[in-house]
């Protein structure tokens, strides 16, 4: 019974968010967009949280700004851009592909390719061992002599 | 080639260790300012009371100066306060931006600790601070004669920051046309 209760509670539980009712927009579609944008923006105070998750007062201010931008009819990109011009691409939790971020984006693939290269080199080397040429008659004769007793 | 293959993981380790080692010396809470070499965003803010007028971005030109962001709730501001007082006594204009703070609270804080500021502007709604890219208090902007931001100090100014960074920079900006 307890287990059932626990399972039910877990099933209906939703993660807590920092967005306060007073911040929310009346228009549910606009509010949903604001939530999505907020999830992509880094809180500059507690840096590993999005402003959607953060309880920091500055994060609340930034959430309000995002909603304000949307109410003004701005697109999602424009709303994000508003904060990027003030805090830099640093506030984007998904960093853009730029001249100073190429290593970040391509680095893992470079490492993967290097690893694949190593594996191929190793496999080749092993095949080389398997394909050792057969013994010459002289060598065979010597081996026979050595293993006779 | 195979003979040297064993060195590859060691080399990879050394490169990673170097990268992470350099990373450890950096402070992740320092977010580079977007305003460097750009004019201050336009603002015009009231002061802390009717008889203490605030200032606007237009007032911050003509002489290199410091724009210090502070708040009565800020824990590190009292620590920085003696340095600001000293800097102001040396003749450097220090403007104060009371950020995310009620004017009455800022005024009370200044009456307790002393007021080193040439002028104080009140930004309880935090908008000017956000336009400036402020992430916390205290932060201090170095503004040149033409009203452009040239440097941002994140965290309190101490003796070392003042003598090695801010003071030489202000002297250099003073010499600029």
TrEMBL record, chain A:
TM segment ranges: 102-123
Every CcmH/CycL/Ccl2/NrfF N-terminal domain range: 7-146
Single GO term (MF): metal ion binding
InterPro entries linked: C-type_cytochrome_biogenesis, CcmH/CycL/Ccl2/NrfF_N, CcmH/CycL/NrfF/Ccl2_sf
GO biological process: cytochrome complex assembly
UniProt keyword Heme present: yes
Entry keywords, A to Z: Cytochrome c-type biogenesis, Heme, Iron, Membrane, Metal-binding, Signal, Transmembrane, Transmembrane helix
Gene Ontology CC annotations of this record: plasma membrane
Signal peptide range: 1-18
Task performed by this protein: Possible subunit of a heme lyase.
Family: Belongs to the CcmH/CycL/Ccl2/NrfF family.
The name this protein goes by in its record: Cytochrome c-type biogenesis protein
Lineage of origin: Bacteria, Pseudomonadati, Pseudomonadota, Alphaproteobacteria, Sphingomonadales
From TrEMBL, chain B:
Family matches, as InterPro entries: Periplasmic_diS_OxRdtase_DsbE, Redoxin, Thioredoxin-like_sf, Thioredoxin_CS, Thioredoxin_domain, Thioredoxin_ResA/DsbE_sf
GO cellular component: outer membrane-bounded periplasmic space
One biological process term in Gene Ontology: cytochrome complex assembly
Top-level taxon in the UniProt lineage: Bacteria
Main location: other
Keywords, comma-separated and alphabetical: Cytochrome c-type biogenesis, Disulfide bond, Redox-active center
A GO MF label: disulfide oxidoreductase activity
Domain Thioredoxin: 34-171
Keyword hit for Disulfide bond: yes
Localization per record: Cell envelope
Family: Belongs to the thioredoxin family. DsbE subfamily.
The protein's name: DsbE family thiol:disulfide interchange protein
Species assigned in the record: Glacieibacterium frigidum
